[in-house]
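The passage that follows is intended for readers who have already worked through the single-chain material. We present the inputs for a multi-component assembly, then the predicted structure in tokenized form, and finally a short commentary. You are encouraged to pause after the input and sketch how you expect the pieces to fit together before reading on.
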Amino acid sequence: IAGITQAPTSQILAAGRRMTLRCTQDMRHNAMYWYRQDLGLGLRLIHYSNTAGTTGKGEVPDGYSVSRANTDDFPLTLASAVPSQTSVYFCASSASGADTGELFFGEGSRLTVL
Amino acid sequence: GQNIDQPTEMTATEGAIVQINCTYQTSGFNGLFWYQQHAGEAPTFLSYNVLDGLEEKGRFSSFLSRSKGYSYLLLKELQMKDSASYLCAVMDSNYQLIWGAGTKLIIKP
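Having made your guess, compare it with the prediction:
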């Protein structure tokens, strides 16, 4: 089934540890995004990539890094996790940019930092 | 600053009609989106409005007034499966999506 796959679906992590959230899409979409979703707040963009080989910072990039070595994969790394990074993380993609109207989301990765 | 406002929670009855409002203040406007998100699941696309007026898609309709910075999502013939959060998002002049916090819709039998 075509779509976006995220891993892990859930993780508990000690503060200070390094963590990579994986995201893979098989729709050949150019643009990919990482969002975090916290209770009472809207989705907030962490990083994005308009095409393979390029990345950009979103609204809340501090403490996170991304890479886009190819079209399909867009991993998100927390270099040294802190409790404020406890959140649900969603990876998304779109055919070109989000101005096409539709983002396709992965099922989310629930991260708890203790 | 940029701001998207929508009610936190609404309750409606199965078979009825409900209107979920969204007001926005953004730096520029390049379209407004509605997404549905069931608890514990990913958001899924419902509608996109860039011109004023009503867009109808089955039981769901979305309305936009750019001059008023206002949109609503209208759900007809409510079903229990419509219980979800509804997210309003606006694309600003930099083509960045600004998201509202979402409206949790509770459907009662």
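Commentary: The two ends of chain A are 35 Å apart (CA to CA). Chain A has no helices and eleven strands. How closely did your sketch match?
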